[in-house]
């Protein structure tokens, strides 16, 4: 009994510690967001003299300059297009791969799982030379489609999440549909996919944020008008003092798609992350 009470006290102390750390981290994030937002309406002098104070007036001229006089709006369009198409392709390919893995027994199944797990251990940047040679042979360098193919091919994490989810779905669902005359594609499209909305949202959000925020791969494969928002923003940061009034509006604008994606996928994200903790 004493051991149980001692264990409960330790768990309680740990939970308090985790709560305090989370509050500290959240406070830092909120503070940074506050500074970024208010600085986007300030002049360069106001930003340098007092970064924490509110702007004297809401001046939208910096936003207008960013949207009309720079190529940042085009770069934002490139980022959104590449991210959106990559997410759709990644969801289709990884979900079908994971469904086949969970439903069938075949030679090399263990190797496939090991291969996917190994893919999660190594970042995509390690294969940049091989990827560049392949994309260059396909004449897709400096086009969004070459980068999209690379992101879709980086499906280890997405496939692993789908595998874990499909493995927990009861076989009776597929068997009942087969008795009614449904083929495998119908079972996957009309039964498994609707049941998999939580994991679809989880993969879309996690992979989408990674792709949207990626800097290294677009820097290597894209140039000129094809560049993404992260590359353009980094180029402006290299001359921070000269572009200080435009940088903060760029950051605010670039965060908007992330917030929209999170709003649409937050429910599925929570359900997908907690699905493995539920007892079946």
TrEMBL record:
Keywords of the record: Cell membrane, Membrane, Transmembrane, Transmembrane helix, Transport
Protein name per UniProt: Carbohydrate ABC transporter permease
Family: Belongs to the binding-protein-dependent transport system permease family.
CDD domains documented for this protein: TM_PBP2
InterPro entries linked to this entry: MetI-like (IPR000515), MetI-like_sf (IPR035906)
Transmembrane segments: 16-37, 80-102, 114-135, 147-167, 187-212, 247-265
A cellular component annotation (GO) from this entry: plasma membrane
GO biological process terms held by the UniProt record: transmembrane transport
Pfam families: BPD_transp_1
Organism this protein belongs to: Candidatus Choladousia intestinavium
Localization per record: Cell membrane
Protein topology in the membrane: Multi-pass membrane protein
PANTHER family associated with the record: ABC TRANSPORTER PERMEASE PROTEIN MG189-RELATED-RELATED (PTHR43744), SN-GLYCEROL-3-PHOSPHATE TRANSPORT SYSTEM PERMEASE PROTEIN UGPE (PTHR43744:SF8)
Domain ABC transmembrane type-1: 76-265
């Amino acid at each position: 009994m004493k051991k149980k009470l001692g264990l409960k006290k330790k768990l309680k102390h740990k939970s308090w510690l985790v709560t305090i750390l989370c509050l500290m981290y959240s406070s830092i994030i909120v503070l940074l967001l506050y500074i970024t937002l208010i600085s986007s309406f300030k002049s360069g002098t106001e930003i340098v003299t007092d970064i924490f104070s509110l702007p004297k007036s809401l001046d939208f001229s910096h936003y207008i300059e960013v949207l009309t006089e720079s190529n940042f709006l085009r770069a934002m369009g490139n980022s959104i297009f590449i991210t959106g198409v990559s997410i759709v392709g990644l969801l289709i390919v990884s979900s079908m791969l994971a469904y086949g893995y969970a439903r069938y027994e075949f030679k090399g199944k263990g190797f496939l799982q090991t291969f996917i797990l190994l893919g999660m251990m190594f970042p995509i940047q390690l294969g940049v030379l091989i990827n560049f040679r392949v994309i260059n042979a396909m004449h897709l360098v400096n086009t969004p489609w070459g980068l999209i193919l690379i992101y879709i091919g980086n499906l280890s994490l997405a496939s692993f999440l789908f595998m874990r989810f499909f493995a927990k779905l009861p076989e009776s669902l597929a068997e009942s549909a087969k008795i009614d005359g449904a083929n495998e594609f119908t079972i996957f499209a009309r039964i498994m996919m609707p049941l998999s909305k939580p994991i679809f949202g989880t993969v879309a959000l996690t992979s989408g944020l990674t792709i949207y925020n990626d800097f290294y791969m677009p820097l290597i494969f894209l140039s000129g008008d094809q560049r993404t928002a992260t590359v353009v923003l980094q180029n402006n940061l290299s001359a921070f003092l000269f572009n200080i009034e435009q940088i903060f509006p760029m950051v605010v604008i670039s965060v908007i798609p992330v917030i929209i994606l999170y709003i649409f996928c937050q429910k599925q994200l929570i359900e997908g992350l907690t699905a493995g903790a539920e007892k079946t």
